[in-house]
Amino acid sequence: MDIAKTENLNPEYKDLLDRISHRYVEGQAQAIRSVNEFLVDTNWNIGKYIVEYEQEGSTRAKYGSKLLENLSRDLTLRHGRGFSRSNLNYMRLFYLRFPICEKLSHKLSWSHYCELVKLDNEMERSFYYQQNILENWSVPELKRQKDSGLFMRLALSKDRKEILKLSQQGQIVECPEDIVKDFYVLEFLKIPEPYNYSETELETRLMDNLQKFLLELGKGFTFVGRQYRVTINNIPYRVDLVFYHRILRRFVLIDLKINEVKHDDIGQMNMYMGYFAKEENYEGDNPPVGIILSKDKDELLVEYATYGMSSQLFVSKYQLYLPDKEELRKIISRQLETDEI
C-alpha cells in the first residue's frame, strides 16, 4: 500500500497498522542480531575444537597441514557452504586471538572478526576491536581504517602509557587533542601524484566524499558548511570547512592549504576562532578548535607562529595515499622501547 494513502485510513486501523509494522521491523532486527550472535559463538567454538585437536600432539600428526583441507572437504559434504579452508582458518585464528568467548562483543559481526583476526599485532587488534565498538564501523569502514593505519597515526604523538591506553580502550574523546591527528589520509579523493590541484578542487572533492571524510575525522563530527562567511569590520572572510563536534560541544574550523602553511595562515585561523567564540557560540558551547590542514608543514615555523596562542589551534598534514604501515609500526615500536628504558 502506498504510504501516502494510509493518511486517509481510520485512525484506529492506522494505529494497528503502525504497531504491527513497528513490531515486524523490530523483530527483523532482533532476528539478525540473534543469527549474528549464534554465528559468532558457533565459529568461536569450531575454532576451539580445531585448536584443541591440533594440540593433542603426535597422535594427530598424520593430518599435519592438511587438517583444514580435510575438514573443509568433509564438512562441506555434510553441511554445504560455509566451510571453506579459508573460513575454517579464520575460525581457528578467532579462537587463538580471542580466547575468552564471554568477552566477545556481539555488536560486531563475523565479517568484522574476520578482519580483526588478520592483524598479528595484539595492540593494533585490540585498538580496532574497541574502536569498532565505540564508532559502530561497517566492515568496509573497518578495512579502510586498518589500511590507513589509524592506530599508528593516533599513537605517533603519544608516550608508552598513552599508547597502551589507546590499545586497550580505543580513542576516548575528552579534549580537543583527542580529535586531531598528526596527519590525515585522503586517499579516497583519488587524486594522483604528481598532480597540480587547487584548494578549491581539494575542497570540492572533500565535499563530494563527505561521508568518507567524516570517517577520517572520527566520531562526533557533524558538517555545518563550506566557505562559511565571516564578516569583520565589513570585510568578508570565508572559512573553508566548518564542523560541530557533538561530544566536545564546540565548532571545529578547517582551513585547507595545498602548500606549506605560512605564519599569516595561522594568524587568520586564530582570528576565525576568536570570531566563532564571540559571535557563533551558543550558551553551553565550548571554545572552537582550529585545524589548518596543509600539504607541508615547517615544525619550527609553526612552533614560533603559535607561541602564546590558543592550544586549540592545530596544524596537521594530509597525504593523498595510504601510509607505509610497516614504517609506522617501526616508529611506534621505537617509542615503546624508548619509554620503557
Characterize the structure shown:
- Residues 178-329 form the YhcG PDDEXK nuclease domain.
- Pfam families: DUF1016_N (PF17761), YhcG_C (PF06250).
- Residues 21-153 form the YhcG N-terminal domain.
- This is DUF1016 domain-containing protein.
- It comes from Butyricimonas hominis.
- This protein has 341 residues and is of the alpha/beta class.
- It folds into two domains: 3-96, no CATH class; 175-323, Trna Endonuclease, Chain: A, domain 1, CATH 3.40.1350.10.
- 51% of the residues lie in helices and 15% in strands.
- It has 13 helices and six strands.
- It has helices spanning 11-54, 67-79, 85-97, 110-116, 122-135, 139-147, 150-155, 160-169, 199-208, 210-217, 263-280, 299-305, 325-340; strands at residues 183-185, 221-232, 235-245, 250-260, 289-296, 313-319.
- It has a six-stranded mixed sheet.
- The longest helix is centred in the N-terminal third of the chain and has 44 residues, at 11-54.
- The radius of gyration is 26 Å and the shape is globular.
- The N and C termini lie far apart (71 Å).
- The mean pLDDT is 89.
